[in-house]
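User: Structure with zinc ion, tokens only please.
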Amino acid sequence: MKAVRFHAHGGPEVLVHEEAPDPVVRPGGVVVRVKACAMNHLDLWQRRGLDRVKIPLPHISGADVAGEIVEIGPDVRGIDVGARVMLQPGLSCGQCARCLAGEDNYCPRYDVLGYQSDGGYAELVAVPAVNVIPIPAQIGFVEAAAFPLAFLTAWQMLFSRARLRAGETVLVLAAGSGVGQAAIQIAKAFHARVLATAGGPEKLARAVALGAEHAIDHYAEDLVARVKQLTDGRGVDVVVEHVGKATWEKSVRCLARGGRVVTCGATTGYDTTLDLRHLFARQLSLLGSYMGAKSELLQAAQLFFRGVFTPAVDRTFPMSETAQAHLRMADYQQFGKIVLVP
Ligand SMILES: [Zn+2]
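Assistant:
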């Protein structure tokens, strides 16, 4: 098959579109012909290399896949060759207490497709059959690939972690990011009031179109002052964070009493400061979040299939142009998901 691999860590130039061995179907597994694979920031970290994580080389990234089943393990039931599917991006052992409790993303062996395993920057990908989610005929492959990781992540952040309630106010940072566009749609659908940040008039307009009541220009406006103004000095109940160092202190200052910051990433840096006086005197909660349980993805998918959620797709690139797609993501040019097609 053709695949996009890197043999060493580095810039976008290490991504090579080349021949690679076809994946082999494993017991309990399937092989999927990839029709679309959405990119995530994790892909950039994998390519650049991480301090404490060893990535197997050569490596095929790609966690967000939609395609057709082409091969089924001999012991797999309930799925047919030719089925149109998207893939749950979390891999777990399926046997430990956390997996059996439906908390698969707390499994000690939890992994994301395309992280320690080969992912979807390829014509074919092998996954466990339990990762397969059939998609209805009206859902296209590109939008299906754009859905799983972003909506799964945002869903767990807002519900299991931040315990969002109807009528609360949510501030979503970076509306044009995968998690940002998903969080706006989910919070809006569950009757929260949504404020969002974005850079430039075009992205601000798109944030409002997705359901934000107000969009704040994070380059041109004072975020904390604007949030206080829009909430009559009260602040917001929940901040959806993934920006990290550049915004963390502002995110904490935007919170109302009893507010929660929930974070799933640190794209601008991970070392920051915290004024503990804010934390205790205003009874704040700081929450970490990583992916989500498969059951949550299945819940969110019902709303996707019914048209309540529409993943924002920035643009598609042929896989032969994956390096350009990485550059676009690294420069924060996109609004919504960048999707690769073989
Ligand atoms: Zn497990």
